[in-house]
UniProtKB/TrEMBL annotation:
CDD domains: Radical_SAM, SPASM_PqqE. Residues 8-224 form the Radical SAM core domain. The keyword Oxidoreductase applies. InterPro entries: 4Fe4S-binding_SPASM_dom (IPR023885), Aldolase_TIM (IPR013785), Elp3/MiaA/NifB-like_rSAM (IPR006638), MoaA_NifB_PqqE_Fe-S-bd_CS (IPR000385), PQQ_synth_PqqE_bac (IPR011843), PqqE-like (IPR017200), Radical_SAM_PqqE_MftC-like (IPR050377), rSAM (IPR007197). One of its GO terms (molecular function) is oxidoreductase activity. It comes from Symbiodinium necroappetens. HAMAP family: PqqE. Keywords: 4Fe-4S, Iron, Iron-sulfur, Metal-binding, Oxidoreductase, PQQ biosynthesis, S-adenosyl-L-methionine. Pfam families: Radical_SAM, SPASM. NCBIfam families: PQQ_syn_pqqE (TIGR02109), rSAM_more_4Fe4S (TIGR04085). Its cofactor is [4Fe-4S] cluster. SMART domains: Elp3 (SM00729). This is PqqE protein.
Length: 374
């Protein structure tokens, strides 16, 4: 191991994007607009090898994700392999098309945790965002099955202009479903969410009211429900350490095997991504060009380069910096020190009001493949 490698921490988490296939069509999806096809997906043997390599590398948690990971028929085998390796497995699911017998088989195989997405606290709103009639009732049934099996349940709700006013109902529903944790995730504008940004952006007053609701709920539900939530980037003063810092804590493997430092890294021009089909995971983590590109602080420009928070937030999000300032090295414009910060706030205000002002182009573009998958 070289000196630079010795200074690089081992990753703790692996996001295994098993497939981009999904029965839902959420317009806030952070998957790329160009979805990877079933015919390009890694096979079972390659995924099990990747999981073994991840465990050897130091990974502790595997998030089985997608798309919808239950679309893979080999999910039980992959969960069992995680259990054999001592990896904590978290199933990130939309909760539809998952019959009780299959969930029981996954639990039997050693599944540790289920994270269930909700698009809203009632059927009509949930199913409109999900783009799938009947999804809400399937999700509620699945939550009951998860709890009946004794598995810990996290409810995840991505919030935006169309559901942010209903946060209290989301909290009440998470409690009723027996969730241990509720993640309130503001839409992050990559992939399909970026395409739909003007249709999703919440208004400033909505965000302020939501943060107050969350604060009250955190106090009222302390000891019963853990509530995770942060101020959305477009209304923040300081950025978040995206991914816990580039190439510091976690890595993503796409359905076809490309290894990414974050889910939107492929939007950054000039980066090249290794594939698990042709290079061992440890080598990719420690020596891969894409991971080296923004690891640490050497790549930073001002104001990050001389900022006292540079090893706290690692300059925020590279993909957001690129999307909004044209350069991935720039400070994330969520930061008040960025010269693009004021423009970001103006953009958020303008887009959140676009619909109210009758502007066209604020209808959803639902996620989907260019041609249907078999
Ligand atoms: Fe973070 Fe850079 Fe802003 Fe400092 S200047 S707070 S390092 S984004
Ligand atoms: Fe790529 Fe934040 S999503 S660094």
């Amino acid at each position: 191991m070289t000196g630079a490698e010795a200074e690089t921490p081992a990753p703790l988490g692996l996001l295994a994007e098993l497939t981009h296939r999904c029965p839902l069509r959420c317009p806030y999806c952070s998957n790329p607009l160009e979805l990877e096809r079933r015919s390009d997906e890694l096979d079972t043997a390659t995924w099990t090898r990747v999981l073994s390599e991840a465990a050897a590398l130091g990974v502790l948690q595997v998030h089985l994700s997608g798309g919808e990971p239950t679309a893979r028929r080999d999910l039980e085998a992959l969960v069992a392999h995680c259990a054999d390796l001592g990896l904590y497995s978290n199933l990130i699911t939309a909760g539809v098309n998952l019959p009780p017998a299959r969930l029981a088989a996954l639990a039997e195989a050693g599944l540790d945790h289920v994270q269930l997405s909700l698009q809203g606290p009632e059927a009509a709103g949930n199913d409109r965002i999900a783009g799938l009639p009947g999804a809400f009732h399937q999700k509620l049934a699945l939550a009951g099955e998860v709890r009946a099996l004794g598995l810990p349940l996290t409810v995840n709700c991505v919030v935006h202009r169309h559901n942010i006013a209903r946060l209290q109902e989301v909290i009440d529903l998470a409690l009723a479903l027996g969730a241990h944790r509720l993640e309130i995730a503001h839409a992050q504008y990559y992939g399909w969410a970026l395409r739909n940004r003007a249709a999703l952006m919440p208004r400033r007053a909505q965000v302020e009211a939501a943060m107050a609701t969350l604060e009250r709920a955190r106090t009222a539900q302390a000891g019963r429900l853990v509530i995770d939530a942060v101020v959305p980037d477009y209304y923040a003063r300081l950025p978040k350490p995206c991914m816990g810092g580039w190439g510091r804590r976690s890595l993503n493997v796409t359905p076809s095997g490309r290894v990414l430092p974050c889910h939107a890294a492929e939007t950054i021009p000039g980066l090249t991504f290794d594939n698990v089909r042709s290079r061992p995971l440890a080598e990719i983590w420690y020596q891969g060009a894409a991971f080296a590109a923004f690891r640490g602080t050497d790549w930073m420009v001002e104001p990050c380069r001389s900022c006292e928070r540079r090893e706290i937030d690692w300059g925020g999000c590279r993909c957001q910096a690129l999307a909004l300032t044209g350069r991935a090295e720039n400070a994330d414009p969520a930061c008040h020190k960025s010269r693009h910060h004021a423009a970001l706030l103006e953009l958020a205000d303008a887009e959140s009001e676009a619909e109210a002002q009758g502007e066209t182009g604020t209808a959803f573009v639902y996620r989907g493949f260019a041609t249907p998958q078999k």
